[in-house]
């Protein structure tokens, strides 16, 4: 169940439908719900985390207590919501899904806590954006399963202690560092989700193609996985785009050549970088002589929001060794400089 109080409080979605941004779009929400794995067996990747979760779930069952509250952090698109749904399913619990911007007023968070059933999972996305008041309402609910509610005014002001059904909170964030200490400390399990390997992404691609009745060869799946930035959300989006291309241009079968042609057409290079990634690297190289350049200056040069750069684009560029973060700002690595030069040479060659 996806909770949102009214239209203004819907989880904030990225309405852009660009090919590669791992941010969630409204299209993704429906698409992802249709193909979401429901069990640990069908959830690919994040092996260490899955093993640890299986033990925690088993232990909670044996002790007959709710599973500890969990915090998942890491770049967007790696399956934090999906994993929360898997956990709920594996524990036989219902899940309520919401996001911090939808919990602006005290009554939003109180309402959702009061509506929970015993054992239910509450998933709060972007939990680092929870305001102070909401956080303080959450603390006793997380710790001892009660809410402090004020009634009356002035001299007749009373605080009522209201019990909340025992629940498991799963918080997700792309910015673990922005979470307040007291909130972070109330999670029993805090875990980072990792980028997926090419092999894991290949399995994701094949699974999705299977569900969508798309014919794909092994090589075709490998080609898509290599350009998916370690991110299943991107891999799943690309499967659909490449399948469309295969139907229009060829016989509908996604093989290596079709996949590579389609991805070239979408302006996704062999490193999985899209036009924004390349613009970011090129600006640092050309306008700031390789850096260092401050995040805000870089964002202004690109006409992008600094948060989007930091939370969406940078994590993969950092992990793949294209950029470095220094105390003075972002710097291009020699590896990225070499890659940009090679791409420029390729472009010049294809012109002549
Ligand atoms: N789709 C998105 N993430 C997935 C995952 N981890 N396993 C299988 N399918 C997925």
SSE layout:
Blueprint lengths: L25 H10 L11 H17 L6 E4 L6 H11 L4 E5 L6 H9 L6 E5 L6 H13 L1 E6 L6 E6 L4 E6 L7 H5 L3 E4 L5 H14 L6 H9 L5 H18 L6 H10 L9 H12 L8 H8 L3 H14 L3 E4 L2 E4 L1 H18 L1
Parallel strand pairs: 1-6, 1-7, 2-3, 3-6
Antiparallel strand pairs: 4-5, 8-9
Helix pairs in contact: 4-5, 7-8, 7-9, 8-10, 9-10
The site of adenine has 10 residues, from α7 and α9.
The separation of the N and C termini measures: 56 Å
Let me know the largest β-sheet: 5 strands, parallel
- CATH class designation of the largest domain: Alpha Beta
Query: In sequence order, what are the helices and strands, one letter per element?
Result: HHEHEHEHEEEHEHHHHHHHEEH
If you had to describe this structure to a student in words, what would you say it looks like?
The protein has 352 residues and is α/β, with parallel strands linked by helices. The protein has 3 domains: 46-192, 3-Layer(aba) Sandwich (Rossmann fold); 196-265, Orthogonal Bundle (Helicase, Ruva Protein, domain 3); 275-351, Orthogonal Bundle (Arc Repressor Mutant, subunit A), CATH 1.10.10. The chain has 14 helices and 9 strands. The chain has helices at residues 26-35, 47-63, 80-90, 106-114, 132-144, 181-185, 198-211, 218-226, 232-249, 256-265, 275-286, 295-302, 306-319, 334-351, and strands spanning 70-73, 95-99, 121-125, 146-151, 158-163, 168-173, 189-192, 323-326, 329-332. Strands 2-3-6-1-7 form a 5-stranded parallel sheet, covered by helices on one side. α4 (106-114) links the parallel β2 (95-99) and β3 (121-125). α7 (198-211) crosses α8 (218-226) and α7 (198-211) crosses α9. Mean pLDDT is 91; it is low at 4-19.
């Amino acid at each position: 169940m996806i909770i949102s109080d009214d239209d203004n409080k819907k989880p904030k979605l990225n309405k852009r439908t660009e090919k590669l941004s791992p941010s969630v779009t409204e299209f993704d929400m429906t698409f992802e719900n249709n193909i979401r794995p429901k069990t640990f067996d069908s959830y690919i990747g994040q092996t260490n985390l899955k093993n640890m979760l299986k033990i925690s779930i088993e232990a909670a069952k044996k002790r007959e207590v709710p599973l500890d509250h969990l915090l998942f952090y890491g770049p967007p698109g790696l399956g934090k919501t999906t994993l929360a749904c898997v956990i709920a399913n594996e524990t036989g619990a219902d899940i309520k899904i919401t996001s911090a911007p939808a919990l602006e007023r005290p009554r939003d968070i109180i309402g959702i806590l009061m509506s929970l059933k015993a054992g239910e999972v509450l998933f709060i996305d972007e939990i680092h954006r929870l305001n102070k008041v909401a956080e303080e309402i959450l603390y006793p609910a997380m710790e001892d399963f009660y809410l402090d509610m004020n009634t009356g005014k002035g001299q007749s002001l009373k605080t009522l202690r209201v019990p909340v059904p025992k629940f498991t909170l799963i918080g997700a964030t792309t910015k673990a560092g922005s979470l307040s200490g007291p909130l972070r400390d109330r999670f029993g399990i805090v875990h980072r989700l990792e980028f997926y390997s090419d092999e894991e992404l290949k399995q994701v691609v094949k699974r999705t193609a299977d569900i969508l009745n798309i014919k794909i060869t092994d090589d075709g799946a490998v080609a898509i996985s290599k350009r998916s930035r370690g991110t299943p959300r991107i891999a799943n989006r690309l499967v659909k785009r490449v399948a469309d291309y295969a139907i229009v241009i060829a016989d509908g079968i996604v093989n290596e050549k079709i996949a590579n042609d389609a991805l070239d057409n979408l302006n996704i290079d062999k490193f999985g970088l899209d036009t924004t990634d390349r613009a970011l690297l090129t600006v640092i190289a050309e306008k700031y002589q390789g850096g260092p350049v401050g995040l805000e200056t870089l964002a202004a040069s690109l006409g992008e929001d600094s948060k989007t750069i930091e939370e969406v684009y940078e994590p993969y560029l950092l992990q793949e060794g294209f950029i470095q973060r220094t105390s003075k700002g972002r710097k291009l690595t020699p590896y990225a400089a070499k890659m940009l030069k090679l791409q420029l040479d390729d472009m010049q060659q294809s012109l002549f």
